Amino acid sequence: MAGSSYTRQSTFGDGDVITAALFNNEFNQVLNAFSYSATGTTGHQHDGGAGEGGNIEIIGDGDFLNKILVDGTNNRWGFYVQVGSGTVEQIRIQDGAIVPVTDNDIDLGTSSLQFKNAFINGTLEADAITIAGITLSETIADTVGAMVTSNAETGITVTYEDSDNTLDFAIGTLNQSTTGNAATATALATARTIGGTSFDGTANIAVALSATATALATARTIHGVSFDGTANIDLAEVIADTVGAMFTSNTETGITVTYQDADNTIDLVVSGSADTTGNAATATALETARTIGGVSFDGTANISLAGVNSAGNQNTSGNAATATALATARTIGGTSFDGTANIAVALAAEATSVTAVANNSANETVYVTFVDGVSGTQGIETDAGLTYNPSTGLLGFVGVAGTGAVKVPAGSTAQRPTAAAGQLRYNSTTGKFEGYTDSWGDIGGGEATFTLNTMTGDGSDTTLTMSVTPASENSIQVYFDGVYQHKDTFSFSGTTLTFSTAPASGVKVEVMVISTVLASSTPGDGTVTLAKMAQNSIDSPQYVDGSIDLAHMSVNSVDSDQYVDGSIDTAHIADDAVTSAKLAHSLDIVTDLSVGGASNGVEISNGAIALKNSGTQSKIDFYCETSNAHYTRIQAAPHSSYSGNIVLTLPASDGDAGQFLQSNGSGVMSWAAAGGLYNDWLIKTAAYTMLSGDQIIVNKTSALTMTLPASPSVGDVVIVKATGGGTVTIGRNSQKINSVAADGTLNNGNSTQLVYVDSTIGWLQL
Predict the structure, then answer these.
(1) Which end of the chain, N or C, is less surrounded by CB atoms within 10 Å?
(2) What pLDDT is stored for residue 598 in this prediction?
(3) Model pTM score
(4) How far is 712 from 759, CA to CA, in rounded Å?
């Protein structure tokens, strides 16, 4: 309820005298304003109404460690108590409940200070309840135990065991009505008659029956056989006749089944005409007789083969596993041999030659052939004479007569023998003779074969697949855009050539593979003419240093591709040779540049630009877009104004509208709003993050948030006035407000001033 408001009684200026009357009037006005009565005629109660000031949101002691906090944001009261050097929220009143801040943290009364009566309209929940020193569970158990103790039971006894709070039940003798069937009984409730004799179960009875019966009143059939009780029936015979009927007059293949009713047996006979295709496990004869060595055999008896079991005249053409003589004697070295005895071939003790004599015709060409005794592979075959050197153990050729030739071992590249110096063979893979010194090499066989492989570099591909496999590294020549590449810049395996560095994008790569080597002697002086030189056959390794002079260079033969990076120095640039037309529009200056001289011109050094003028201040003119008709100039102060060098550091942002640049006194510039301690009043209808010195009027009919500055400095101040009808939330922006980490609330019609104190108090509300 609103009371009187405070009205200032006097205004004082510097040098004014304050009398007792003036001071009393001012004090009485203050006393009247803060003297509150329930009737509301005087004083004021800080209820947020007009003239009452802001709501009182916190009540506490001098250091606010013990306090009551009204949290308008979360609609609750918090009760704080000092714990050590800090304050801890103990109890909250919120949502119609008094709750502890931390579960199981607050006691309701103590053992000595107890509440009197508790009146609860609802559910009471507790882990344990003690009544007069006894737990509620024990009280309930004792109450239930008393209910069954010393009472009247029928047929059952109940005993309460107080030691373990259990109930024991014991059933005694029962005489209750047990309507229904008893498990055992001595008599029937109602006597029954059995065969006309009364029976109630108390005694046995005898039922008179006919001693024997000669026939059934109605004859029955047993498995189709009539039975009236006047005679026995043979069930086994019935079964036998049934099974026998199953085999009678049926259709079998290869077997006959006969039921003998006389002895109840079944005879099974396999028919001789049954199909017995296949092999019998045992048989006495073959269906079709066969001949063995010309002797008929049907399996009914053993046979004798002449020449096997006895002497005979069978044909034994072919080689016998063992034989004592050849059918036809042969000659070995002119000596007859039929296999019945060894022969000796007489050779000269120290023959200097072996003569092969033709025996088929007078003009036969005779060869001496050397054959591998293990594999049988043919080696050297010749019609020439041979010489033997006992000191070296080597065979030699006297010569090849006429048009004959010497045949050397032949085979593919994969069939090369274990390499040893001096080997000579014919390579069937390459079609060339080859020999081995320290590596295999072709011998003659025609001109060398050059194979060209090309690719275009892409900056990433490091391999090229060649069409042939080089014999060695020396058989490969690599060119980048026609420039020879050293052999340490690549390697190869099979047909794969690998570059140590991927060719740059767009570079033409040429790989020349020399498959064979020319079997020619060194050319004589002056014998190699230009006509005998292949295109691109001479590269830089063939040039003698200094051998190419200006007279041997054609006009316009040297272009930029031939320049080595950094090879053109200042001494080789003619005066005035570089004009503005040769300067790129975008000029990168990586070193110092001085234009005009050290004292009068432009100097660029390490990212700094210096304008130097002798006789006048340096300046920069910014011309307009129309024929340079106008300009804006920035220029240095005159020499007389300086006492030293000045450095101004611009801010890192573009600021807000209406702000200006201000210095911190050390040349560091920042954006600031115009005005004194406070900025001009701002009218806000949307959420806003405030700056230090802001005076904000919030004109919004609905709720709105004004956020405090993010990184405040000590002494920063803001003022917020709520109008328009909506509640204003003061966002703390990670700082505290009145020592509490919670947002503030400003009701419609109220205003607040906040000053940043420190990280503990945060923003203090005035």
Answers:
(1) C
(2) 67
(3) 0.23
(4) 10
